[in-house]
Amino acid sequence: MQAWRVHENGEPSEVMRLEETEPPTPGDGQVLLKVRAAGINFPDALLCRGQYQVRPPLPFTPGVEICGETGDGRRVIANPALPYGGFAEYAVADAAALLPAPDALDDAEAAALHIGYQTGWFGLHRRARLEAGETLLVHAAAGGVGSAAVQLGKAAGARVIGVVGGAEKAAVARELGCDVVVDRRGEDVVAAVKEATGGRGADVVYDPVGGEAYAQSAKAVAFEGRIVVVGFASGAVPSPALNHALVKNYAILGLHWGLYTTKNPELVRHCHERLTELAARGAIKPLVSERVPLDGAAAAVQRVADGVTTGRIAVVPAPVNGAAA
């Protein structure tokens, strides 16, 4: 089979190599999956760089979420078990963690439903307890993680303010349903949020960016607001001023979705059921901005790493032995 493998850490476009290799052999409790589509996530770039919290042994295949097919023909969503990730024709995953792919979504959309939407659901509902009528501020609203939060916020009845970088991403955020779009390249984010909320600020802030975005969040959050820290795509990990959180009376909430897969996997299944229901009625639909063949994966991961993409890019391998992909 063909698989992208990383033999040394570095930038994705430099260290990912497309190679011929044997299909992986599943271990105890694992299953071999034919990859129908693999979503590209920012953690894939961090894995290549050796900067992710998980560091698989070299060489490894990146690709942390897929829509795959089991040997008996079931269409499923899975997180591949590294080092045998999803940017390949076949991957392995824990059999007990497989989730049925929603009928309402195609393969690429189903692959993109998992990490971003699970993270959004847990962040907004489990951690921040977002309520209908509240104002939700989403940083990087046109990206893979942010776009999921925008759709989930709208589905929950929130008023959504999206922060983006550039006119193209602003247009995407509007199409996603943002009630207010703020272009950080030409606007003062804090002032724009305050103006849009009558000076009150946002009840919930969803931040996958960190750095300057977090500093803006702390200034734009409302009384009794909640800032959900999801990641640090900017590369800068902020150091919150806890005296500011005390004086202004807001909460800082961390979210590491992966912990739920081991600490409380039943919640992951419950979330998937809710997401499947939302997809069935059209309330959410992953924004797949591009579908690339397997040989285009390295360049696509690099574009995600560089922050120039919108929504989610999906890698769609060619059919294996003539089978439908």
Blueprint (SSEs and pairs):
Elements: E1 2-6, H1 12-15, E2 16-20, E3 30-39, H2 42-49, E4 65-69, E5 75-78, E6 90-94, E7 99-100, H3 107-127, E8 135-139, H4 144-155, E9 159-164, H5 167-176, E10 180-183, H6 189-196, E11 202-207, H7 212-220, E12 221-229, H8 242-248, E13 251-254, H9 260-263, H10 265-280, E14 288-292, H11 297-305, E15 312-315
Parallel strand pairs: 8-9, 8-11, 9-10, 11-12, 12-13, 14-15
Antiparallel strand pairs: 1-2, 3-4, 3-6, 3-15, 4-5, 5-7
Helix pairs in contact: 2-11, 3-4, 3-10, 6-7
Written description of the protein model:
The chain has eleven helices and 15 strands. It has 325 residues and is α/β, with parallel strands linked by helices. The strands form three sheets. Strands 3, 4, 5, 6, 7, 14 and 15 form a seven-stranded mixed sheet that branches. It has a six-stranded parallel sheet with strand order 10-9-8-11-12-13, with helices on both faces. A two-stranded antiparallel ribbon has the order 1-2. Strand 12, helix 8 (242-248) and strand 13 (251-254) form a beta-alpha-beta unit. The longest helix has 21 residues, at 107-127.
